[in-house]
Design goal:
Layout (H helix, E strand, L loop, with lengths): L4 H9 L2 H9 L1 H17 L3 H8 L3 H9 L6 H10 L12
Length: about 90
């Protein structure tokens, strides 16, 4: 029997410790989601983007999966390679 992902997620997030750890990762999830959206808008594969950035496809995969937190320099290179501009915005909590 399989449990739908959303049900499993809801069950896990009912635990306050799990929810706190999950919420702490929100910025990393947001960055990786934005990177993926930018690449898809540009119509590029991970390999094509890697070639434009002078890096490897596996590096792009790690960036988009949230496994690594990119430097500002890397984010700027990624933005340029996808035809985007890099912006930093802080908003009130």
């Amino acid at each position: 029997m399989t449990i739908p992902f959303e049900k499993l997620k809801a069950r896990l997030l009912a635990n306050p410790k799990v929810k706190a750890a999950y919420d702490a990762l929100a910025p990393e999830f947001e960055i990786s989601a934005e990177l993926l959206k930018a690449r898809l808008r540009a119509g590029l594969s991970q390999s094509e983007l890697a070639a434009r950035m002078g890096t490897s496809q596996s590096t792009i995969a790690r960036l988009e999966s949230g496994q690594t937190l990119p430097s500002t320099k890397t984010l700027v290179r990624y933005a340029r390679a996808t035809g985007n501009k890099f912006h930093v915005r802080l908003s009130a909590a």
